[in-house]
Design a protein that fits this description.
296 residues, alpha/beta, Rossmann fold, 11 helices
Length: 296
Amino acid sequence: MSVSVVKDLTSKRGVRRALDLIRGDVHRVLPSNARILIKPNFVSAYDPLSATPVECVDEILKFLLDMTNPKEIMVAESPTIGRFNDAVKSYGYERLREKYGVELCDLEEHGYEIVEVEDDRGLPLSLPISKLVLESDFRVSPVRPKTHDVVIVTLAIKNMVVGSIRRGYRRLIHRGYWQINYLIAKIATKVMPHLAVVDGYEAMEGDGPVGGELRKWGAYFASINPVSLDSIVALAMGFNPGDIGYIYLLSKWGYGEIDPKKINVVGDDLSTIITAFKPHRDFKRQLEWKKHLRMD
């Protein structure tokens, strides 16, 4: 499997080019007659820079429908700030229903299943996780790259994990820098995306994931391995993937590679995209999760 990289500063067509570069990988893992769930990121229903661009999801839909005749395609999310319907209208997602006949689903309205995970102390933690996410055959996580106030960056894995938790219960994973990284990784093992896409035509740096600043980048990425993809994107943003707790832990648990030398990068030269995003003001404090690593 590969991570595709595309540089395109002049248009918004890089998503499709990135997907075409990994078509063979996707074809191997995409079930026939699948229930496909595409979960964009609407952390806020009122701040376009915090959300996945509708153009990104449009390109994903065209790509998947060229490859398969799915049983069902849902575009589903549960914003942390604001209402789903407000996000759908303000971000132009209604056109996807009209154009492709997909369902636009508020995860809050489709039920939850209690999932038991162990916290960092080995104690059980019960969390309501979206049934739509758990029961889908093929999960897609398309995101805009952003810096974050707790876990350094928020990319494909975190989007799927946090958005899958029922609103009102997401605070249960916010227990400090170590705990949130550990719990994101644990929950990710239950809801890992099958396809991850990062649309970095415009990104967010600084005090993300909502209050940051626009960073025009023109970089696009795609992979069927979200751990490797998030690692390459983090590296391209100027961060060490090993500094991002949930990515580090998932790699240690065998879910993907974070060493860029061991990841098959295809497409444009990564060196033409690597830059240095302005981190969140609490970046150095966020690294405190490393103090809790068990050395055994």
